[in-house]
Amino acid sequence: MTKLLIDRQLPSSESIATRRNFNAILDGLPKKKTINSPWFYGAIGFSTVFLLILLNFFI
Amino acid sequence: MSASLLYFDRFGKPEDELAIIERAKRNPEHFAPLYKKYHEAIFKYVIKRVDEEESAYDITSCVFIKALTNLPKYEYRGIPFSSWLFRIAKSELYQSFRDKKAQRTVSIDSMQLGKVMEEFQLDESEHKRDVLLKVLPLLKESQLQLIEMRFFEKRSFREMGEILELTENNAKVKTFRALIKLKELYAKHNNQK
């Protein structure tokens, strides 16, 4: 049920400004992936990553 | 001064904002001036619709996080950036009501209620005011938000249309219909007394 509030005292502009926090907004953004999928680097990049994994396995 | 000029005076020229938006698409840190500019307007829009101040601050933060996340998709098509933010605020509010994180509230100023009574050609007696307040929540949500924006927030039909994704004319027609519905509900409840 909708509530009606008559002559409600809203916070002042000064008090609203004190709650402004742009860093919190930036922190709330979804984090970008720092490690890309091997496909991101293309065929040569993928082969290199694959070779490195193979070498790592055999050495 | 015309309503549209007043509207643009309120939120500045769109060209200045577009340059900031383009920079913010590449680096979110450039969004800071727009956050500073619109934080209060969005907070006030939200707090008038929820009962708790802390919920209003939380929802306002969610609006800006969502705006920044979706900023790469934003394209200027003649609708001010402020209206795009209000649309996000509207959607975040309804999500909070669905999740029961906030209670739907309508904040009414006695003076603005007087304007609705004038529209109904009613004198401002205590009884008539009480009947009107009793029937307001009986309107459909879509109708209530039109009355709320037009009479309690004094928005132009143009701005209402941009926020509610309607044409200016459609906003006008729907507000008129909402008023008729309110009048009907008023008459019904007033006769019951």
SSE arrangement:
The complex is a heterodimer of chains A (59) and B (193).
Chain A: E1 3-6, H1 13-18, H2 22-28, H3 42-58
Chain B: H1 3-11, H2 14-26, H3 32-47, H4 53-70, H5 81-98, E1 105-108, H6 110-119, H7 126-135, H8 141-152, H9 157-164, H10 168-192
Helix pairs in contact in B: 3-4, 3-5, 4-5, 5-9, 7-10, 8-10, 9-10
Describe the structure.
The complex is a heterodimer of chains A (59) and B (193). Helices cover 51% and strands 7% of the residues of chain A. Chain A has helices at 13-18, 22-28, 42-58, and one strand spanning 3-6. The longest helix of chain A has 17 residues, at 42-58. Chain A is rod-shaped. Chain B is an all-alpha fold. Chain B is elongated. Chains A and B meet through strand 1, helix 1 and helix 2 of A and helix 3, helix 4 and strand 1 of B.
N-to-C order of helices and strands of chain B: HHHHHEHHHHH
SSE run of chain A: EHHH
Please give the largest β-sheet of chain B: none
Most residues in contact: chain pair: A-B, 23 and 33 residues
Helix content of chain B: over 70%
- Oligomeric nature of the chains: heterodimer
Calculate Rg of chain A over CA atoms. 27 Å
What's the main sheet of chain A like?
Answer: none
Number of separate helices of chain A: 3
- Contiguous runs where pLDDT drops below 50 for at least 5 residues of chain A: none
Q: Can you give me a brief rundown of this structure?
A:
The complex is a heterodimer of chains A (59) and B (193). Chain A has 59 residues and is mainly α.
Label this structure with key terms.
heterodimer; A: 59 residues; mainly alpha; 51% helix; 7% strand; rod-shaped; B: 193 residues; 10 helices; disordered N terminus
